[in-house]
Amino acid sequence: MNLELDEDLRMLADSVSGWLKQYLPFDRRREMRGGAAMRAFWDEMQGALGVAGAGLPEAWGGFGHGPEAHMVVAEALGSALAPTPYIESPVVVGTLLARLGGQDELGAALAAGKLVVLGWEEEQSRGDALSVRTEAVEANGAWTLTGVKRAVRWAAQADTVLVTARTGEGLGVFRIDGPAPTRDYRLIDDHPAADLLLENTPATLIAAGDAAAAAITAAVDAGTAAVCAEGVGLMRTLLDDTVDYTKQRKQFGQALASFQVLQHRMVDMRIQLEQSAAAAILAALRGNDPAAVSAAKAQVGEAARYVGQQAVQLHGGMGLTEELRVGHYFRRTTAIENQFGDADAHTRRYRKLKVA
Questions:
Q1: Are strands 170-176 and 160-167 parallel, antiparallel or unpaired?
Q2: Burial bucket for residue 289 (CB in 10 Å: 0-12, 13-18, 19+)
Q3: Is 232 within 8 Å of 300 (Cβ atoms)?
Q4: Closest alpha carbon to 174 in 110, 115, 116
Q5: Which stretch of DSSP H or E encloses residue 201?
Q6: What are residue 196's DSSP bridge partners?
């Protein structure tokens, strides 16, 4: 298996990283809270790079680089702590539409940077995309939805909202007609999210049955693999900042980095990071293998917690201040632990898949 990036992907990685370094310094990121500012940043980034199309099909106006591009972009976004809907929109919804087929108009909108999100998670889901209680009812050729979708990131800022719901033919994918009824809030990582409060809400059926269920699973797995790559980017920055800090900070007349016990902790951080990087690459390359995706998410979830906690502790009290970026990165790694299902949920899924 060739794990080297080809020239196109290297250029993509360099372009995204270079642009973020220039236009998203930490001071700007620290002040960027709330959905409006973050949506404006996404539009700015899309206008400069066209990044939404990185992994989308050429038929939609994308670059056609597939899951490998999603991995590269997500890791760069993680390294810069960039607050974008890249995973929720081009990755998750792009995969969903590609699997369903016949959705070229909406796919082209995605590639152009329009924000389309999928509400799939509910109170009981815990990362299981097929655990759905929201109901769809048809009357006189019109559909309505009733149920609650939890923590739908970017829902209030989206141009189009899709949701999963149960029909008489199993699971279906619907587009909400008109503004989505939401309860908006901000997550621990400052990203915008909302609960979708659906009560006889008008919607349009996009697909239903086994094909829809398979597409939903593939879409959520694609998002899970991408968030693993983002976690790798976050951990790289956390480790780099921690090593730099321990070289500068002195105690008892010596740099903290000179103490062997702290060196051992940073080596353990490096091991967790490299194991996660390997798992994230495998998940991207084997996107059709849900076991590889769950293995990566379990690894990255545990590693992100460890690396984040160690980074904060080795920075001492400074680690939780607003002035240093380590605390902000720590909050994002904490969110990643539970996004798309936590380590325990994916460990159970992995075991079930291997037994089957």
A1: antiparallel
A2: middle
A3: yes
A4: 116
A5: strand 192-208
A6: 149, 182
